[in-house]
Structures are given as structure tokens and as C-alpha cells.
Amino acid sequence: MTTPALNPDSWLQKPAHLAWLAGEGMRLLQFARASRVDQGFAALAANGQLQAQACAELIHTTRMTHCFALAHIQGVPGHAELVDHGVAALQGALRDAEYGGWFANATGKGEKTAYLHAFVALAASSAAVADRPAAPALLDDAIAVLETHFWSEEEGALRESLSRDWKQEEAYRGANSNMHGTEAFLALADATGDTVWLQRALRIAERLIHEHAAARGHVVVEHFDCDWKALPDYNDDNRADPFRPYGSTPGHSFEWARLLLHLEAALQHAGLAAPGWLLQDACGLFASASRDAWQADGAPGLVYTLDWASRPVVRARLHWVHAEASAAAAALLRRTGEQVYEDWYRRIWEFSASHLIDLQSGSWHHELDSDNQPASSIWPGKPDLYHAYQAVLLPRLPLTPSLATALTAV
Known about the structure:
By secondary structure, the chain is mainly α. Helices cover 49% and strands 5% of the residues.
């Protein structure tokens, strides 16, 4: 793979822009530190304080541990201890000592989901790359659970969720969990040196993107039954679900577009065959999402969901969608050098800076209404560091290796 030289006028070449990204990253990290609780990390309110009855949750503990590991690798003081705190929580209160795997929160209830276990693997791999002493054991544990309970060699994808004792399985397959599985597998390949994770990531991408999304005009199909039959009407009665919404989710198209480029680069770096459809489908996903979701209701910004006729369903603007769109634009710009991606990269960052970045209370507004005013119908508070922090890191790094490993070379 030969990547074109970037135009000297590209924002990715501008020292001031790169410095701005770095400064925004430091601001995000400072806000997120308050999420620490005794048993891990918990959700923060919009003002940066712990929410009422804050409880350590697996989603926040894994994502914070991952991000704090990235900060430590970069040489930002004060984050090694936070990484160790997260690793200890994942080996303690959040781990199921009886059956293995991890609880969704420190109350020890609920099923075991591939989505959350993928983030355990991501956090463990980043902590291991950061050379934290307890991380290798956590990484081994995470890999064992993924391979024993979630990875289906027959399907070439992840099972969705199982009961606490692993005996009952949900009759559902999801693109979201497999997308984050792909992200985790790229990190596992770098952390372990085992290219089997790249082959597994390719199988997931082939099924979900090259088979299903490409056939729908590069619109990601999110929901399936256990035989991988698409369920286009899934959650029609709960259209704004934060994890399994009805219809298509343009933010995931952007996220998938970027991951396909990371996978292509990783395969080629490993000396493995990288099919041409990885780039073609990445371009198609970005084109369809940007065309259909931007100003879909006449106002600036990307809407949360669309129906199957590309009409807006949930018109809220979520911060993570814009973070992923800017990161995907940067990846496509780096891969192709085409001006259209430069234009989108600037457009999305201009929107984020004007509407999402909260310079008064900190972090980013996680949700805006259709008038681009702060809202909280889907995402109350500001619990998420992961999407925004990665968005300020990814444009400064090559397409491979994955984030933690790439940062060790910077």
C-alpha cells in the first residue's frame, strides 16, 4: 500500500492544528479523572461531578483504563496510577470470580455481553503496551474469555450475550459488538504479535460490511437473528435506544470506515493479503453516511439515526458520532489524499468546536437536540472520554499499528 503525500495545506500538516488537538486531549483527560470510584470508574454528570449513586461500571472502567493508558504512554504524568486502578478493578470487583468474565457493573448482576468484553480486551491490551505490571495477567484472562465464550469460528464473528453462567445465549447477533470486537482484535494483534486476530477481524468485516452493508448501498445493518438474518424492524418501538437503535446509525458507518482502513494497513504490514474491498467499502460507508446524515433535517450536524429510506429518525446530534466522523475523514485523507476528506475533516471539527466542545463546564456536550442545544434524552451527563479522546489522537498517527502501540513510537 502506497499512501499519497498530504497537501501542505492540509490541517493534518499544520503544527497549530496538531497542537490544538493535543491541547484538547489534555483538557479532556483532566475532566475525566474525576470518574474514579473505589471499584473502578463511574459516570460523570454534565458539571464533571460524579452522578448521584455513582457505581463502577464496566463500560466506563474499561474505556477510562484504555484512555489513561494512552495518556501514560504519551508521557502525561499522573495516569499510571489510574491505569493500575482500572486494571485492579477489572481483576477485582468487576470480575466474576465464580464463572469468569466480567459484570456490567459492580453490583454483580446482568448478562455477559460481547460488547463489554471487547472493551475489557482493549483496556487490557493498552495497559499491557503501557507496561503496567498487572496488565499481562488481565490480557491473558480477557483473551481466554473471548475465545472460550464469544468467538464463533463457525460464524466468523462474535456471539452477542450469554447468561452469567454461560449456559443461555441470546438469540441475536449485533454489528455494534462485532465492530468493537474488530477494534479490540486490531489492538490484540499488536499487543500479542499474533496475526490470528487480524484474520478474525477480516472475517467479521467481510460478513458485516462486504456482505451486508455493501448490498444496502453501504449502509450498516445493525441487527440480526442468531442465523445472521437481518432484522430491519428491530427496536421499532424503542427507536432512540443508546446501544441498539432502530434503523441505521451513521456514526457506526464512520467508525467502520476507519476500522477497515486500520485493518487494511495492519494486514499489509503483517505481510498478509488485504482485499481491495477494504478501501472501496470504507469510501462507500463514508460517502453514504456523510451524504444522508449531515443536515438531514436542515440544521447543521449529523443526526443519530436514519430509517431505511435515509430519512432522519432520531434527530439528536451525539458527540461520539462527530468524533468518529472526524477520525474517519482523517483516516481516509491519510489513505487517499483526496480533497473531499479534507473538506469533511474541517467541516466536522468546525461543528464540534462550535457546538459540542464545552469550554465552560469541561469535556464535550454528549448530546444536542435538533436545534443544536445541549440535551440529555439519550446520553445524560458526560460519562465518555473514549470517543473524543481518540478523535484528537487518531489524526496525528499512522493507520497502523493501533493506538497504544503507535503512541510508543511517537
